[in-house]
Design a protein that fits this description.
2 copies of one chain form a homodimer. Helix content of chain A is 45%, strand content 14%. Chain A is α/β, with parallel strands linked by helices. The longest helix of chain A is centred in the last third of the chain and has 20 residues. At the A-B interface, helix 4, helix 5, strand 2, helix 6 and helix 10 of A face helix 4, helix 5, strand 2, helix 6 and helix 10 of B. The structure holds a DNA duplex.
DNA sequence: CTGTTAGCGCTTTCAT
DNA sequence: ATGAAAGCGCTAACAG
């Protein structure tokens, strides 16, 4: 935050060409500021509009003068920032980008903007971002996951704005939740493999608890193994989220060395599963003949590779869309001075069977 | 923007618990607002700070009262929004996310925030986003590519803030540029394949001109083919950006059918190259024996697949970092009332030879 | 080191 | 349908 020479202080500002204001436009048109304001805000407010002819004249003058309304002043005056903040673990993951796109589409339909931040899978970074966002007074906040620092939880609870946690089903939600059980989804995959005849099923996931979805998936694996009475303990942990493809490759090699009897492996995500699949090809291990491989997330690579990956399919965009729509209702309630009772929206998931198992 | 019931008008706001202001904190501590303001802004401004003891007392009181400074009011008053806007074609592309991460790191070092928007590879969407961003008065704007609508160009030229175009080398830059020649990079790849002995080299790219980097790459391919005196015309166009892996697969199949003599194919990006590679495996065509495949971008999949993909390596994060640092200098100049002369920073690229060629 | 005054550009509210 | 006045929460500028 401060390891380079500070920028020039505001007081050093030279008097650049003064920016065009609403008053300038009003003067040029020969009306009051209020009339310009109304012409520009027509529709989104409850106020009486200007005559259509005048409105067009005002709009034309704005364009002529290169006037762009100052949202900073508008937000300040109206007490409405006009944006919703969303935090995702990383930008570079199509699951989360699709969620972000669903969110964007939903909130933009009501004239709100989505402001995106990424936490790098770190709750400390999340805390910092939550603070930075709250300073800008978002009308709502969408988080990925239900695991936060104590300070972050506190800020969120006191923020007075709607908060939605997505992608997980936290034990103690802040307010609203839109997601699914990562544990159940992974357990379903294990049951699916069992039904296909696999009995020596291993799991490859992260070594840290940074990624709470990864932790839940491992938990779901263990639960299913236990339920099915299969031999436990075949959990292979590598690195920390996001697990790259290369670590999936390393993991499957070491795993087969350690437990040669393993006939199937469930990976924490398609990326590691793909890495594992390619490593098997390099070593000449038939997939699924020698070992079956399953992933999670149905990323593009899962259906493009050969053989294609069996995986857990999640409606990522649906999570975003549902969150966005819930957020709009919550914001509407807040603007009317009420609080929307906490909701939990379950997003369905499915097992996509392909050639890798 | 308005196809759902409008949100409640601001006037409908019920008097929720009034938000804590700086005056409240000041009253509690027994000092003036200005003292609180100074304590909170210490370092980032040129003003005299408060005594350390008092400052700590003020900070503690802020924490006690759950006070979070109102950046909306601060921006409004100081004429500094404290953020830089960046537009990328899509979030779901590690090249652009790395650029975004480099940018974030660079601007955060000076206490600025990065606000991200994605254009979906559409200059109309870009225009809309530029307008939305300018309303919020960013201190600078970073764009991907040099192709914009006329209206967008106009807004940018009149915005009065530093603008940087990245990833391309536009013929008529708005102001600053940080990028490389996509045409040169692709031409280098063709020359590389020629040096390896390939003579019947095809190109797979998009059918539309939505993605200006894709267009430049195709141009670079054609130029190199011409320079080398190779037979021209083997350009295969599919869909529009972003070309998915599946279209790379379709393309290579059709291409080999149409031009069976082809011995190497250059793809517009690693994604289509990977799709092509997998399709070859499905059909039992040896890569590079029957046909060699090259990509662009050095995405994770390029080094994880088998055989690994020969590709063009670009320092994506470096583009972001260089842009961020240039932006800081430009903002500093703007705050001092001057304008930084337009700079063009070239980011080097390289050919990464792997097993696919 | 701290306080006072003024005002940023817009919207709210009330008046016509 | 339009206007006038007031003020949002903060910081710049100046004074002490």
């Amino acid at each position: 935050m401060a390891d380079r020479p500070p920028l020039a202080p505001a007081s050093a500002q030279a008097p650049l060409r003064r920016q065009v204001t609403m008053a300038d436009v009003a003067a040029k048109v020969g009306v009051s500021k209020m009339t310009v304001s109304r012409a520009l805000n027509r529709g989104s407010r409850n106020d009486r509009s200007t005559s259509e002819a005048l409105r067009l004249r005002i709009l034309a003058t704005c364009a002529d003068m290169g006037y762009v309304i100052d949202q900073t002043a508008r937000s300040f005056s109206s007490k409405r920032s006009g944006f919703v903040a969303a935090l995702v673990p990383t930008l570079n993951n199509s699951n989360f980008s699709e969620t972000a796109q669903g969110l964007t589409a939903a909130v933009e339909a009501s004239g709100l903007q989505l402001l995106l931040g990424y936490t790098d899978y770190r709750i400390e970074t999340e805390e910092r971002l939550i603070k930075a966002m709250l300073m800008r007074r978002p009308e709502g906040l969408v988080l990925t996951g239900g695991s936060h620092t104590a300070a972050a939880r506190n800020m969120l609870l006191n923020s007075g704005i709607p908060v939605i946690e997505t992608w997980d089903l936290p034990a103690e939600p802040i307010a609203h939740t839109v997601g699914f059980s990562n544990a159940d989804a992974t357990a379903a995959m294990v049951h699916h493999l069992f039904a296909k005849g696999y009995r020596r099923i291993a799991f490859v996931g992260g070594a840290s608890d940074r990624d709470s979805r990864g932790v839940d998936r491992r938990r779901g694996y263990s639960r299913a193994i236990h339920e099915l009475g299969l031999p436990e303990g075949r959990v292979f942990s590598v690195g920390q989220a996001p697990i790259p493809m290369s670590q999936g490759a390393e993991a499957v090699a070491l795993l087969v060395q350690q437990w040669p009897e393993v006939d199937a492996v469930v990976c924490v995500s398609d990326h590691s599963a793909f890495g594992a699949l390619m490593e098997c090809q390099r070593r000449g291990w038939a997939v699924p003949g020698r070992i079956a491989i399953a992933g999670f997330g149905d990323f593009e690579v899962a259906k493009a590779c050969h053989p294609r990956l069996t995986t857990v399919v999640v409606d990522c965009e649906g999570i975003g869309r549902a969150s966005g729509e819930l957020m709009l209702r919550a914001i509407d309630a807040a603007r009317l001075g009420t609080r929307l009772p906490a909701e939990t929206l379950l997003i369905p998931f499915g097992i996509q069977q392909r050639e890798s198992t």
